């Protein structure tokens, strides 16, 4: 829901600087990243000029890899006609979350899992980011959803979230030091009812964002779970971002990369709407390069190369092409 939004007067005006997150920082098709979970960090100070040291974060479990793809390539896309993006876990072609990108923020529309099929559909969309956002920005969002299995409702829920940008400074992570970082506090309470049982989850979260980065840099989360009014669980968790396709600015109009057929388990034809030398790399779900080559396009879309993927492991890959002018295009390739 597009809801209450304020910007704290003169103080926030003076802080409209490098810590301001705008629509230019919204995620885009082709961006692939990994969330690495780690030990929980409890107290991370507010205010300007801070240094948050999470360099000693100890990874716990394997990293999770995700990709932003075109909604039309995701399962269940017909139920989310307003989506601009779909977020999908690497290696899973059955699930996706759908996002509406607007000039004033990001809005979660719901998710789909073809295994049920299970659909979580927001009737009152979830505003997870506001633009512009700087120290002093705050917004409250009210969201409502229904969960269905094979089209039959099994639960309904509502969530109230408050976000406050309350700090700026330097964030030190195991994979690097980041300056001009914005700290956002997120508190939420979600209640869902399913077959007579009431489930409630509270969340206290600290989020770190940086201009020029399409995802959250790091986050610490404290969940408390309740069933029919009694506490049933608790979770402390932190995670940090590991970009896989780093520095990629997708300019599809310039390179116009296309793959056919896709999905495939044989020969894929790779074409580009560019003329001249091209550099191409293919990475797997873990960001490892599985193929790289240079080729030349002579006649736009009429020219290209063929790639034999018949011996490759099944799963999702990313094909990245860069022309001599530095324009980059990323497309997702599925080997089945």
Write a structural description:
There is one protein chain. This protein has 336 residues and is an all-beta fold. The chain folds into two domains: 5-243; 252-335, Sandwich (Immunoglobulin-like), CATH 2.60.40.1220. Helices cover 3% and strands 59% of the residues. The protein has two helices and 21 strands. It has helices at 9-14, 252-255, and strands spanning 5-7, 32-38, 47-53, 64-69, 85-89, 95-102, 105-113, 118-130, 137-149, 152-173, 176-194, 197-210, 218-227, 230-243, 258-260, 267-271, 276-283, 289-297, 304-308, 315-323, 328-335. The strands form three sheets. A twelve-stranded antiparallel beta barrel has the order 2-4-5-6-7-8-9-10-11-12-13-14. A hairpin with a 4-residue loop joins β7 and β8. The longest helix has 6 residues, at 9-14. The chain starts with a strand and ends with a strand. 31% of the residues are buried. Residues 2-17 and 245-255 have low confidence and may be disordered.
Mean pLDDT: 83
Major β-sheet profile? 12 strands, antiparallel, barrel
Q: Between the first and last Cα atoms, what is the distance in angstroms? A: 38 Å
Q: Secondary-structure element sequence?
A: EHEEEEEEEEEEEEEHEEEEEEE
Instruction: Give the number of domains.
Output: 2
Quick overview:
The protein has 336 residues and is mainly beta.
List the helices and strands and how they pair.
Elements: E1 5-7, H1 9-14, E2 32-38, E3 47-53, E4 64-69, E5 85-89, E6 95-102, E7 105-113, E8 118-130, E9 137-149, E10 152-173, E11 176-194, E12 197-210, E13 218-227, E14 230-243, H2 252-255, E15 258-260, E16 267-271, E17 276-283, E18 289-297, E19 304-308, E20 315-323, E21 328-335
Parallel strand pairs: 3-10
Antiparallel strand pairs: 1-9, 2-4, 2-14, 4-5, 5-6, 6-7, 7-8, 8-9, 9-10, 10-11, 11-12, 12-13, 13-14, 15-16, 16-19, 17-18, 17-20, 20-21
């Amino acid at each position: 829901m597009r809801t209450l939004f304020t910007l704290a007067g003169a103080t926030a005006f003076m802080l409209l600087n490098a810590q301001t997150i705008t629509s230019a920082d919204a995620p885009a098709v082709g961006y692939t990243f990994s969330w690495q979970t780690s030990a929980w960090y409890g107290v991370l100070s507010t205010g300007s000029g801070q240094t948050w040291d999470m360099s000693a974060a100890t990874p716990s479990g394997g990293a999770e890899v995700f990709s932003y793809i075109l909604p039309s390539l995701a399962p269940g896309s017909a139920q989310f006609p307003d989506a601009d993006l779909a977020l999908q876990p690497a290696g899973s072609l059955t699930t996706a979350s759908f996002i509406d990108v607007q000039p004033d923020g990001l809005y979660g529309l719901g998710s789909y899992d073809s295994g049920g099929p299970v659909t979580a559909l927001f009737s009152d969309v979830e505003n997870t980011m506001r633009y512009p956002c700087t120290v002093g920005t705050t917004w409250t969002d009210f969201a409502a959803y229904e969960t269905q299995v094979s089209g039959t409702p099994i639960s309904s829920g509502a969530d109230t979230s408050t976000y406050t940008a309350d700090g700026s400074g330097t964030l030190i992570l195991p994979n690097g030091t980041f300056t001009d970082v914005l700290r956002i506090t997120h508190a939420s309470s979600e209640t869902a009812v399913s077959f007579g049982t009431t489930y409630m989850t509270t969340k206290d979260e600290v989020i770190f964002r940086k201009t020029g980065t399409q995802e959250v840099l790091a986050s610490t989360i404290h969940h408390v779970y309740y069933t029919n009014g009694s506490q049933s669980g608790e979770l402390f968790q932190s995670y940090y971002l590991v970009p896989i396709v780093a520095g990629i600015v997708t300019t599809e109009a310039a390179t116009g990369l296309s793959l056919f057929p896709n999905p495939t388990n044989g020969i894929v034809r790779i074409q580009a709407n560019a003329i001249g030398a091209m550099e191409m790399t293919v990475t797997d779900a873990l960001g490892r390069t599985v193929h790289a080559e240079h080729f030349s396009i002579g006649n736009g879309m009429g020219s290209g190369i063929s790639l034999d993927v018949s011996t490759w492991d099944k799963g999702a890959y990313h094909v990245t092409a860069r022309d001599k002018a530095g324009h980059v295009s990323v497309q997702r390739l599925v080997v089945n």
